[in-house]
Please model this.
Amino acid sequence: MNASKRRAIYETLQSLNPHPTTELEYSTPFELLIAVMLSAQATDVSVNKAMRKMFPVANTPRQIVALGEEGVTEYIKTIGLYRTKAKNVVATCRILLDRYDGEVPADREALEGLPGVGRKTANVVLNTAFGQPTIAVDTHIFRVANRTGLAPGKDVRAVETALEKFTPKEFLQDAHHWLILHGRYVCKARKPECWHCAIEPLCEFRPKTPPPTE
Model:
């Protein structure tokens, strides 16, 4: 795919959604960090539902440490891998209190040093909470990047590198959100809905999925 096509894809996605953001509900960088940690192998809907109950009770590192693992578990037991996640959330909160005065660091190395925080989670927090032009490659973005020809890669790190290389600078900040939403609602895993895809004329996927018959 050439540079003009890539630019046209981003321009199209921007025209449809000028100010994209995460579907996770949060009001502080800390709330976002916790929500993203919980979202691994879970839906944003399930995380939001749980956090609407937990955050009014505990939405700071100190409050969550006071809840403890069992207390956190009670709020997140509808989310996959909840016991491991509860352990990591409490451990992360202790580190935030001990090393960072209870604040979320705006630094990749520091974030990735927190229990349960990998590169993808760090990228989401850096991008969404701190306005850094990172691209967190999840299953949706990996699929869209490869399927469309936008930034092919054999693994998530290769796709991340390709997206950072090929995405025009002015679109880097929002690219993550545009691509994840496109993968979630249009370029779906089992059957891409090409018949109502705004970037279909620019996409290299073949054969295109026809519209469903009545």
In short: The first helix runs from residue 3 to 16.
